[in-house]
Design a protein that fits this description.
single chain, alpha/beta, three-stranded mixed β-sheet, 13 helices, 10 strands, 42% helix
Amino acid sequence: MKDSPLFISVIFSTYNSPEWMLKTLWGLHFQTYQQFEIIIADDGSSKETKHAIDAFCQQTGRSIKHVWQPDEGFQKTKILNKALKESAGEYILFTDGDCILRKDFLQVHAENAQKGYFLSGGYFKLPMQTSQTITKKEIESGQAFDVKWLCENGLKKTHKTMKLTARGAKAKLLNRLTPTKATWNGHNVSGWRSDIFAANGFDERMQYGGEDRELGERLFNAGIKSKQIRYSAICVHLDHARGYVKQEMRDKNKAIRKETKDKRLTWTSYGIKSETTSNAKNDEGSA
């Protein structure tokens, strides 16, 4: 990290889930690292979500950029690109509106930020009962990440809870030893603005299922490397239904990702700058 504090644009997506979104916002509010802005990428939520955001801003004094688009089906990558256009940070962090970030989450990302790399983390999934029980109080106190409290409120203890208890040297060791690849995971990932825009952001053809990861694959093709921080940057994932998932979405994404890998693409024509926009600029340049 450079000497002056790194200003981070935190972008997270949401869709008609104001209760979960507010828990994400409280997790951000109580961060130890405060050099950041919040941008909510809203894929067509009703006014209830806007009311919840307004109430949060009034209660906390925070300013939030609420980037909204009409509900025309699952278009997460499109709204994420719109949010990127509104971002002011030289460094961008992505999570989701169903994740709560531990207090040191942004600090970990800021301290590990390195030119030529993006940072890859994971999440710890909670059952519905536990997800519903967590309130602002547990987020502020840190109980939402305490294994004892979580187990008292619906979580079954397994070896996976080690992700919540690992600290310091142990967390760094586990980051090195984990067999999980450090990919671009939309719920816990960060990278340099310049790298993301050089790749033209997210491919807007992508539907649900690996839609985030394809951007990371283009970054890899451009020579950007990744660092694993899954045992250091901790967030819990709130349970919810996924009624919008269809197999044809996954099949389409798989085909796009295969092309990205096979052709070693570093740019998408369906991103922040659309193919139509690019062609129009080319026509103007040749006029």
